[in-house]
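Morning. Coffee machine broken again, so started the prediction first thing and wrote up yesterday's gels while waiting. Chain of 221 residues, entered below exactly as on the submission form.
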Amino acid sequence: MEETIKILIYIHAFFGGIGLITGIGSIIVKKGNVFHKRLGKVFSYAMILSSLISLLVARMPNHENLFLFLIGIFTIYLVLAGNRALTLKNKSKIKADMIDKTISGSMLIASIVMILIGVLGIIQKIDNSILYLFFGGFGIFMTIRDFQTFKNFTTIKNAWLKSHLGRMIGALIASLTAFMVAGLNIGTLIIWISPTLLGTIYIIYWNRKLKTKTVSKNIYI
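Came back before lunch.
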């Protein structure tokens, strides 16, 4: 059993590494071109495979880790939601599918569970319980934004792009965090949180850039 778990961990790390490399590559290349799309596809498949394996490992004997299990679910949500956001670009689509709502709804429930675990952990003075609150709160924020986007994506310009960007950057953040925590064996609180904070700043930057572009175009129309 232990040998099987070790193999799964290596496979998980392999796909996680591919996800990290292709994710960084998709940021570097020009958005929307053929290289960006291909790197994005490889990134998505790699991250989902890596996360699915992490779910298995996190529930196996002597490797049980509820937090990593929930982070795996969070990562899968980010990738799926990020790719589903691309379907909102279709002008013939007038409302979000049940698939979209199920993905975001499931993550909302998981985030609430994380919040509850975090609160109980803090009451019981369990180390790093604040991480449950941090990622649970972040998950609730993102899923609420999802449902807001589902309501107004037909009227707000680039709503699909903002959702896609935010979720895919979030998945890349998860990959980078996993690399630092597991690969470099640095599991401090600041290492867990800092990539998310930096990624959030990057997302805000791009959202403002998109808003500026929209305003500029309107001025010259």
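Helices lie at 2-28, 34-57, 66-84, 98-123, 130-152, 159-183, 189-220. Going to sketch it on the whiteboard this afternoon.
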